[in-house]
Amino acid sequence: MIGCTLSFRTEPPRFQETTVHHSPLIVGLCGNPAPASKTLTLTTEVTAALADLFAGAATEVIDLSTHAERVLVWGDEAVAASRDLLRSADLLVVATPVYKGAYTGLLKAFLDGFDLGELANVLAVPVTVAASPAHALAGPTHLEPVLREIGCLVPGGTLHVPDKIARDADARSVLVAEWISVRTPMLATAGRELVR
């Protein structure tokens, strides 16, 4: 019998105790082109809820609606600063409404600014909001693959929030808490000592 060992990592995991010398940074990214959207509220809530799992975590939320007219402008300083913030993140919350069965064009344009594998080993939590149950698979079929393409790890899959729940603060909080609770072991495996 021939034995073999498979290794898929070329560098240590991002969250090994020997490599982390800073407080973890959790960045929320809202891909809704409308300002003050329910997607932004959800992004902020999920980002804060995840921060409760990570010792000493700092949080930032980027609202892409503030970049809507500039996201395709090459070299725009505000857009570049937002991309730099994602590069420095340990965990991303990437939220989008579902438009025509997929994530928004604004989010696509922003994510297209990253090279293949550029966010290697950054944990990501995709979040989708949609009115139709038929769009519940938009995250796994469209958003997760692009996040993996730019290097993110997506250990817990997508948090899908029906539009009706996204509008109800109490129901939304319950859904977010339950989703995170079920996936805490997966996040703990990916980011060991940062999970309390």
From TrEMBL:
Organism: Aeromicrobium yanjiei
A Pfam family recorded for this sequence: FMN_red
Keyword Flavoprotein: yes
Keyword Flavoprotein among UniProt keywords: yes
InterPro entries listed in its UniProt record: Flavoprotein-like_sf, FMN_Rdtase-like_dom, NAD(P)H-dep_FMN_reductase
Molecular functions (GO terms): oxidoreductase activity
Stored SUPFAM superfamilies: Flavoproteins
Coiled coil feature spans: none
Highest taxon listed in the record's lineage: Bacteria
Keywords: Flavoprotein, FMN, Oxidoreductase
Protein's recorded name: NADPH-dependent oxidoreductase
